[in-house]
Amino acid sequence: MTRKLFASALTALALIVLFASPSSAAPSRHDIVGVKTLGGGVREYTVLNPTGSATPTQLRTWLNQRGYRTDQVTAAVGCSPHVGTANALCGAKWSYGPFNDPQVYFLDHSGDTWPVTDARIDWYQAPGIDAYYRWYTAGCPGGGRHCVNVYSASYGQTGWYAQTTWQTSGGYFVDGSMQIQLNNSTTPNTYAARRSVACHEMGHALGLDHNTGTTSCIKTYLFQAPAFPQHPTSNDFSVLNALYPKAGT
Ligand SMILES: [Zn+2]
What we know:
The protein is α/β, with parallel strands linked by helices. The protein has one domain. The chain has helices spanning 3-20, 56-64, 116-124, 191-206, 234-243, and strands at residues 33-39, 42-50, 79-83, 86-88, 103-108, 130-135, 146-153, 160-169, 172-173, 179-183, 208-209. The strands form 2 sheets. Strands 1, 2, 5, 6, 7, 8, 9 and 10 form an 8-stranded mixed β-sheet that branches. It has a 3-stranded antiparallel β-sheet with strand order 3-4-11. Strand 5, helix 3 (116-124) and strand 6 (130-135) form a beta-alpha-beta unit. Helix 3 (116-124) packs across helix 4. The protein is globular, with a radius of gyration of 18 Å. The structure holds zinc ion. Residues 47, 49, 200, 204, 210 line the site of zinc ion.
C-alpha cells in the first residue's frame, strides 16, 4: 500500500468512526437540538436534520451562534410515550381546541421539488391527530386549528437538510411558532431524498422525536443505510395515538 493510499484509508476509517458513532456524549436521538428561554414560560426549540457533512460539534456551534443552548436539551426531548423505537418530543404537544383530534395544517410555501403534499398523506394516516395540507396563500383557518409553515430555500452548506423550530408554553406548542425550513443547498434534488426529509420534519411538527430504528423517515440520520426512508413506521403512528388519545377517553 502506498503512503497516499494508506492515508486515504486512514481518512476513510476516521470518517466511518466519526459518522458511525457521532454522538458518543449523548444518546443519538438527542443530538443537534437547541433551546432558548424566551421568558414568560416560553421556550423555543430547534432541531437540525444532519447531512453527515458536519460533525455534531459543528452543528451545535452553529446553534450556539444563533442563541440556542445545546447543553441542557437531553432531558427536554425524547420523552414518553415510547413505542418500540419511536418517541415523542418532551414537554409539549398540540392542544385539541374544540376538536376530538388536534387539527394541524401544513401551510406549504416550498418549491416544486419538495413533495410536501405526498409526505402529508402519510401523516394523515396517523391516528389521534389530523394532518391537513394547504398552499400558504389559503392562510391558516383558525378556530383552534394549528398551522405549521413549511419553507424551502437555499440556506447554504449548513450541514443540515432541514430545520424545525417551535415554541412551547404550558405543555403545548405555541400556535404560529412551528416552522419547517427545507434546505435546497444540501438535500439531494431527488424525489426520494426530499420526500424523506419532508416526512421527517412533518413528524417533528406533529410531536414526534427521532425514531431510533433504521426504517422510519424520522430516524436521526437519513443518510445512513437504508438512506432516505419514505414513510413513518407503525411505531411512529402508535406514539401519536398514545400522545393524542381520543378526547374524553
Ligand atoms: Zn429530526
